[in-house]
């Protein structure tokens, strides 16, 4: 670690402490040349992959966009906010653990559909109708059959 005062690269760690939250390490250091002391912090840096859009452009991952898509599909559906938060965390965890530096919007869309299918079948159909660009009733019927919502005729 270089000294911020004289740029000498021989510094000594005097004290190491874990933060109260446990998410960083604080180190007190002393420069071997100028003898000045300074503090450094070590934190985990998680980098989300870039998103590759259909037109080939690349953009940074935005959690707000994911939340917006889920909220739109789940509008007026009986799904609690903690369940939505858990779904977002699950999707983001899959993106992080994929090890990929770039992911297609299609991959993210598939992850969203998996979570919506688990959370709420109607929200899943809503999202799928836009995501898969349904153009006729047969495609809706196929999606409904896919989630197992075919109902048996009621006895009258």
Give the radius of gyration.
Answer: 25 Å
Largest sheet: 3 strands, antiparallel
Tell me the fraction of residues in β-strands, as a range.
15-25%
Low-confidence stretches: none
C-alpha termini separation: 79 Å
Strand adjacency order, main sheet = 1-2-3
State the total count of DSSP E strands.
6
Structural class: alpha+beta
**How many H/I helices?**
5
- Shape estimate: elongated
What does this structure look like?
This protein is of the alpha+beta class and about 160 residues long. The chain is about 40% helix and about 20% strand. It is built from five helices and six strands; from the N terminus they run βββββααβααα. It has helices at about 65-75, 80-95, 105-120, 120-130, 135-145, and strands at about 10-20, 25-30, 35-45, 50, 60, 100-105. The protein has a three-stranded antiparallel β-sheet, with no helix packed on it. Helix 1 (about 65-75) packs across helix 4, helix 2 (about 80-95) packs antiparallel against helix 3 and helix 4 crosses helix 5 (about 135-145). It is elongated and about 75 Å long.
Secondary-structure blueprint of this entry?
Blueprint: E1 11-18, E2 24-31, E3 37-43, E4 50-52, E5 58-59, H1 63-73, H2 81-97, E6 102-104, H3 105-119, H4 121-131, H5 137-146
Helix pairs in contact: 1-2, 1-4, 2-3, 3-4, 4-5
């Amino acid at each position: 670690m270089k000294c911020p005062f004289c740029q000498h690269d021989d510094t000594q760690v005097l004290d190491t402490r874990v933060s109260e939250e446990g998410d960083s390490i604080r180190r007190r250091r002393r420069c071997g040349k100028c003898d000045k002391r300074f503090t450094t912090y070590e934190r985990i840096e998680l980098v989300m992959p870039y998103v590759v859009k259909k037109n080939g452009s690349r953009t940074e991952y935005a959690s707000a966009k994911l939340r917006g898509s889920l909220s739109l599909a789940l509008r007026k559906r009986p799904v609690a906010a903690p369940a939505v938060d858990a779904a977002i965390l699950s999707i983001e965890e899959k993106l992080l653990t994929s090890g990929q530096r770039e992911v297609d919007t299609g991959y993210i869309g598939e992850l969203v559909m998996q979570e919506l299918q688990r959370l709420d079948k109607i929200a899943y159909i809503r999202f799928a109708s836009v995501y898969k660009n349904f153009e006729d009733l047969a495609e809706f019927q196929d999606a409904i059959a896919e989630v197992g919502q075919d109902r048996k005729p009621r006895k009258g």
